[in-house]
């Protein structure tokens, strides 16, 4: 879906992905303020209250998605630092949470597909294997649909069409929560209960 982002936004996504590949282990090991380190290294200044001084919500969306794709727990921690209200309380809050879910779903798809291949699940026609195959396919399509929706919402907010963005963000957020629940189901089946509990808290995807 990068074709729908601006050149600057596409560059930021690439820069963020490269950054997490290079610095992600150190961030996950115990940097005291990972959000501030990320902002500094990606040259995004913090505001007076420590909240990122984004020029547009798209910056936060892209960074949280890439952090979640690198390591879901890092994306979750970063998202929590960059939101201020209740779940789904504004289009920006919904977009940040959606970005966390999309990046995590992409991670679960890639890691789960490798695990399923290694275990021979793709060659099996047993019911449990078919369900996991379908779950992986649902993640792949769901991620792309939500990425396109998030891109559209970011453009609406950037143009000042807030009422329109608000209206579209609510059903899109519900789709994101459904994808989060599907990610959790696939992760339980392929990545295990311990990993799922640590990275996909069950209460994170309750519907509004």
Task: Describe the structure in your own words.
This protein has 208 residues and is mostly helical. Helices cover 74% and strands 0% of the residues. It has helices at residues 7-30, 34-41, 57-70, 72-81, 91-119, 127-158, 162-190, 193-199. Helix 1 crosses helix 3 (57-70) and helix 6 (127-158) packs antiparallel against helix 7. The longest helix has 32 residues, at 127-158. It is globular. The two termini are 27 Å apart. The model has no long low-confidence stretch (mean pLDDT 83).
Notable features of this structure?
mainly alpha, 74% helix, single chain, 208 residues
Topology, please?
Elements (H helix, E strand, L loop, with lengths): L6 H24 L3 H8 L15 H14 L1 H10 L9 H29 L7 H32 L3 H29 L2 H7 L9
Helix pairs in contact: 1-3, 3-4, 3-5, 4-5, 5-6, 5-7, 6-7
Q: What's the rounded overall pLDDT mean?
A: 83
Biggest sheet descriptor: none
N-to-C CA distance: 27 Å
Residue share in β-strands: under 5%
Oligomer: single chain
SS summary, helix count: 8
Low-confidence stretches: none
Instruction: Output the radius of gyration.
Output: 17 Å
Work out the number of β strands.
0
Order of helices and strands: HHHHHHHH
Shape: globular
Given the helix and strand composition, which structural class is it?
A: mainly alpha
> Helicity level, as a percent range?
over 70%
